[in-house]
Design goal:
The chain is built from 21 helices and no strands.
């Protein structure tokens, strides 16, 4: 009888060992399929393993990974939560679970998952940084700043933490704090383009245009992404009245496609200030065509002035009329009046001058009265 029991036990052991080997082989196949991005096939193999090992956290994690890669985050979450119940210290499980919560818009759960990593390893700067990033994405900026400081404390070479912390301070209007963090990071890595760019934006906001151009030159020397530097540097040279340098930088933004209406406006004005009216007109046309922000009125006026200088008074008047109806800028009325006067359309000139004088604007009052006097004198002489 004892022999029979022994044989049965041995048979069970052999079956169990055989099943274990089969599952290990199947897991190897699933891993190979996942490496080949064949997640649907890998999932089917993992299903077959899970039927025999429903409490295997690694299998559950891999099933969740396959579901997530196929965009099925809801099922991925279920498998990960079950895996977490089995292994609440598995770093890969917790990371994947946090990312899955994020995909499903369950932001508070994502934060809690990341904080669990910190509980497991309270000196890991990376865990503090990814927690801070999740908090920042949820607009919890104060808490995010706290965790970023912790991240830097435990890893003072983590440039991503410096970058994010400097940006948060900048966006909060705390420019001195932002600059301190950026400079600290740059002392560790002087070629950190993100931190140079933060300092550049701070300088531009504070109108330190000489510093902006210095930082722009520095940034361009460490980063080939010209779109980060050319606009701010070009604008800064414009405000420093260095229109030639402004043109050079903004033409770079034309080539890399980062220029917009505002850039074309500065470029047009720089061409005007260097006497290149043809290029100015071309840039104004592009800016006017974009017509997306507050530059449209000034661009229409500048083009109207150029057309008038070319003897195209009537075309100029049409553009001034379009510009006037954007903000009802009374100065445009005076400019229209002068063109009507030059075209000998005195009645229209008088109408525009009277409209201007009633507007309350003070910039051209003296000139408008003098021109109105001349108009009245001409019309009186004609009546005689």
């Amino acid at each position: 009888m004892k022999k029979n029991y022994t044989i049965v036990i041995l048979l069970f052991l052999c079956c169990d060992l055989y099943a274990g080997e089969q599952q290990r082989d199947s897991l190897f196949v699933a891993d190979s399929l996942m490496e080949a991005y064949q997640y649907a096939k890998a999932r089917e193999v993992l299903y077959s393993i899970q039927r025999f090992r429903p409490d295997n956290a690694d299998v559950l994690y891999k099933l969740a990974y396959c579901h997530n890669q196929m965009g099925n985050y809801f099922d991925g979450k279920i498998y990960l939560e079950n895996a977490y119940k089995i292994d609440s210290s598995g770093v890969n499980i917790i990371l994947q679970l946090a990312q899955t919560y994020n995909k499903l818009g369950q932001d508070d759960k994502a934060v809690q998952a990341y904080k669990r990593l910190i509980e497991l390893d309270s000196t890991n700067g990376y865990y503090y940084r990814i927690t801070a990033l999740e908090l920042s994405n949820n607009r919890k900026y104060g808490e995010s700043i706290y965790y970023l400081k912790k991240a830097i404390h435990y890893n003072d070479l983590d440039m991503e933490s410096y970058n994010l912390l400097a940006k948060l301070y900048f966006n909060s209007g705390l420019f001195n704090h932002a600059k301190d963090i950026a400079n600290t990071g740059l002392s560790k890595n002087p070629r950190n383009a993100d931190l140079i760019f933060i300092n550049m934006r701070i300088a531009f906001t504070l109108r330190n245009y000489e510093e902006v151009t210095e930082l722009g030159e520095m940034g361009a020397s460490v980063s080939h992404d010209s779109s980060r530097w050319n606009l701010y540097t070009g604008y800064a040279y414009y405000y420093r009245n260095n229109y030639t340098a402004c043109i050079q930088w903004l033409l770079t933004s034309v080539r890399d496609g980062s220029i917009g209406e505002q850039g074309y406006t500065y470029l047009a004005n720089s061409y005007l200030n260097t006497g290149d009216n043809d290029n100015a007109m071309s840039c104004l046309d592009k800016a006017i065509k974009m017509g997306m922000d507050n530059n449209l009125e000034s661009n229409l006026q500048n083009k109207a002035i150029l057309l008038n200088d070319q003897g195209k008074g009537r075309e100029s008047l049409q553009l001034f009329e379009k510009a006037y109806h954007i903000y009802n800028n009374p100065k445009i009325l005076y400019r229209q009046a002068t063109i009507h006067y030059n075209l000998k359309e005195y009645a229209k000139a008088r109408t525009k001058l009277n409209q201007y004088l009633r507007s309350g604007d003070k910039d051209f009052v003296s000139e408008a009265r003098q021109l109105l006097t001349r108009v009245d004198a001409i019309t009186k002489n004609k009546k005689k």
